[in-house]
Amino acid sequence: MSSQTATTEELFADDPLAWAGGDYRALHRLGQTELADLQLAALRRRFADLRGGLAVLDAMVADTGVEAIETLGDAIPLLFSPEVYKSYPASLLRRKRFDVLTGWLSRLTTVDLSGARASAATSIDDWLADLDASTDLRVQHSSVTSGTMSFVPHTHSEVDAMFSVVGARVRGGGDPVPVVWPMIRGGRSGIMRCADALAEHVAGGEDNVHAMHPGRMSADVMLLAGQIAAARARGEDVDADPGLLARREEFEVLRRESEAAMPGFVERLADTLRGRRVYLMNTWNTLHQVATAGLDRGLDGLFAADSLIEPGGGTKGAHMPDDWQDRVLRFTGADRLQHIYAMTETTALHPMCGEGRYHLEPWTVAFVLDPATDEPLPRTGTQTGRGAFFDLLARTHWGGFRSEDRITVAYEPCACGRSTPQVHDGIRRLKDVGDVDKINCAATDSAHRAALDHLSGGS
Amino acid sequence: MALAVPAVVRGELVEGPLVEFGGRGETGFAVADPAAVVPRLGRRNLALSRELAALDLDEVLDYLAELGARLVDNEYLDEAVERSAGLADTPPGLVRSNHRLLPGLFAREATEEVVAAIGRDVLTGWPERRMADGRVGAVHAFGVRSAHVIAGNSPLIAAMTLVRTAVTRGEAVVKTPSNDPLTMVALVRTMIDMAPGHPLTRAVSVAYWKGGDEALERRLYHPAAFDKIVAWGGMASVKHVVRYLEPGLELVTFDPKRSATILGPEAFEPAALDDVARRLALDVGAFNQVGCVNARVVYAVCDTGAAEDLARRVYAELRELPPTVSTAAGRIDTELRACLRALRAGGFHTVVGGEADEGAVIVSHLDEPVGFAGSLAGRVANIVPVETAEDAARHLDAATQTVGVYPAALRHRLREVLPLVGVQRTVELGCAVSVHPALPQDGFEPARRLVRWVTDEHLPAGSDPLDIVFPPHREEDP
């Protein structure tokens, strides 16, 4: 494990903001060579620290024969596909074998899970709640793809390091900023976990988070929703879990309330936050929904012009009108949208600059792979292909991630003045976007309703 | 220069002007401009229908037999093999192997079986049946005008389409796929060389356009132009077609399917194991697993250890298959390789092989197929241990086409129950990939679906029509 005295590359990777002396701006203005050297040193340290302690990495090393990392590119065969985070048999969830799932999860993280009481859990919600309570792990679950759910083992400390950067970026050293959260407040999916971190690092406390609904999005219901949607796509029926059917009433109340909540929410925002500088980060479709609810009620120019409105994650499968960005700007009164690029598997919100490029946070190493062969394209100039990343912030799990996105990366410094590599706008899924088996997190909210419909429809 | 693919309109070659399309691999190709060709494909020609209906069935079968003979050492097919690299799902060597199977489909004994599947009597005459109510019903099978959206994973599909069209004396417009824009054109060019102007030659048109091009297809697919649309394969191609359906235009689909294998405990007896491994390797690997008939998930009544032993044997047998039947994929499926790595890391599966593009056998440690079972390709199988053979049934449904079974006694038991969940074919282990064109496929009889069943009815002389219009009339008014 790592030595007692933190080396500079260790500090850079563990707490980039502290490394930069609290100067977020400086993090994006390192010399290219300096950044690459720091990244390589940090990557080598992560590899050395995790070898022998992380079963999944050891298996990958045995599989690929990559025993040492001499260059950044050496890590490419060791990048994890999204499949790694759902490489457990789906029946374990149905059979409620959370003890076995905990064993699986312990292969993916160095966090000691021996204190978890997984065998007592009767639902995913219980299981994850227990992990939250008994360990530093803050597992982020995915929406449901092809009937299964991914579990990415981030820790509280890692997410903390990431959001202290977000806090610095948003607050610039100043006062807490109210967080507007146009969704259900609680939950353990990638995006829902953000609300917890934003409460701490941006809002300065729960009181300053303005959520549409105080409830909690259930992982079990999301899984059921995804399975129902997948089954419907195949023309089949899903037998709802009796345990979920028993919770029907609870879900019903949440459904009725969340469906009805948006109009009241925008009215509350108008009453409490009009003219204030706010932070509002969410998926494109959710931002459009809240804007539409507001504009329908004649509410526009609601917040201060220097508010930070951060759309990320694309349309999530929803149909979006061409003018959705204008509508969001009109409703919020912000003078611009700060687009971000983010994914559950890595700890960063990469912000877009004035030139329309997503700047990769410096603790994220970007690779572009030839989609046909997985061979790396040169880390120079501008390259298009499969996006792959190494998240140096990850110290308890392996940060290497081979995404399903087709991206274009520019490695040379940007006209905006930042030197960090940039991802061009226009990120697409490599797989066919219209794949009927692909139900993604986007549909979460409506799929959630479909699940509740299914439960309340009785069996 | 991109490969140029002509179109054929009613037996006439259309070689230009050309428009380029990207292929599914890196290779693109250029086809006769669909905007000019497609509008010519939607017209009915009653004179041609009359000529076809008047053809003697034996003349049709002779025509097909001669065509079959010309498919041996055929220059157009040779060219199709050479140009298939980068387009076809399999390496050129396997395309050639498939082409070697084509002449057999046109041989007299094969086409007679297709005739028999429909009924020689209804194709050549009006066989009469006296019905219980007294009437005499005569039945004749007429050819129809069909649009065929064919799949490209097997050149045999093009040949089966031609045989069925000719035997029924129907008319076919064939939309070729981007993974095989060549075979159908090669076959029809051979027909043109052999019998230009023959009604059977003029009965076939072939074109490529991008499937789902609504501006083109909306004007083509309507009841005034076609009686049936025959759609093969992928969900996307079937979905494209469905939106054009309306009364008068019938859809015949060979839906996207998967196939599976079920092995009873007898498969693991020492005397059987070698044979089972070889047969299973053939079901998995023949023609590189590009067909819906290839085995992918293998449900085996055994424990994990026995499954792992079988996996090693099957992996070895896969590599021993003759190169005319199966080869390494030739290109690495990066997605599948990433999935295999994830499985190795996850701890719930054993993966044998899969180092490069040679194929692999995955063993599930629990009785559940891998999450990406639908994407298994390039000779990759998944052995799933189950407690009883019947346990496999809960994983099978109407999307399951073929189930290879060992031993025979188990097959006899399963053929009574698997169809109840939707399975359409059970077959001796090792024979899964060989589909017989005269047997039912996907749960229906293709050749019998490609005709219009016409009746001609009359009463015996002296009968009172009121007797059959309202039979109680006889009792009321003796």
UniProtKB/TrEMBL annotation, chain A:
Protein name: Uncharacterized protein
Gene3D superfamilies according to UniProt: N-terminal domain of ligase-like
InterPro entries cross-referenced by the UniProt entry: ANL_N_sf
TrEMBL record, chain B:
Secretion signal span: none
EC number: 1.2.1.50
Enzyme class: oxidoreductase
Keywords in alphabetical order: NADP, Oxidoreductase
A Pfam family the protein falls into: LuxC
Single annotated GO MF: acyl-CoA dehydrogenase activity
SUPFAM superfamilies xrefs: ALDH-like
InterPro entries linked to this entry: Ald_DH/histidinol_DH (IPR016161), CoA_reduct_LuxC (IPR008670)
UniProt key word Chaperone: no
Gene Ontology BP terms: bioluminescence
Highest taxon listed in the record's lineage: Bacteria
Ribonucleoprotein among keywords: no
Name of the molecule in the record: Acyl-CoA reductase
Taxonomy of the source species: Bacteria, Bacillati, Actinomycetota, Actinomycetes, Pseudonocardiales
